[in-house]
Amino acid sequence: MRVHGPDGRVWDIARRPEPARAFAALRPGTTWAVEATTGEETRTWRAKSRGDASRLVSAVAMALRTGGPSPAGELDRPTDD
What we know:
The chain is of the alpha+beta class. The protein contains one helix and five strands; from the N terminus they run ββββαβ. It has a domain at 1-12 and 20-28 and 45-76. It has one helix at residues 50-66, and strands spanning 2-4, 10-18, 31-37, 42-47, 74-75. The protein has a five-stranded antiparallel beta sheet with strand order 1-2-3-4-5, with helices on one face. Strand 3 and strand 4 (42-47) form a beta hairpin. The radius of gyration is 13 Å and the shape is elongated. The N and C termini lie far apart (29 Å).
């Protein structure tokens, strides 16, 4: 999914099984990662299931599109220095 933020940046958002191995998406209990990337920045969230990851993609897209608060589960949150 691709969204445009209020600051003009374009974010590409994707989900993938974690770890990214062959057939990992088919195994029950696989943790999923949701990544949002621009040319300069990558932000990552974790989800417990494929369904949770799908909902998280939508929540991340809405937050990045509107400039709203980040959904829970983000790893290595960027800091404002």
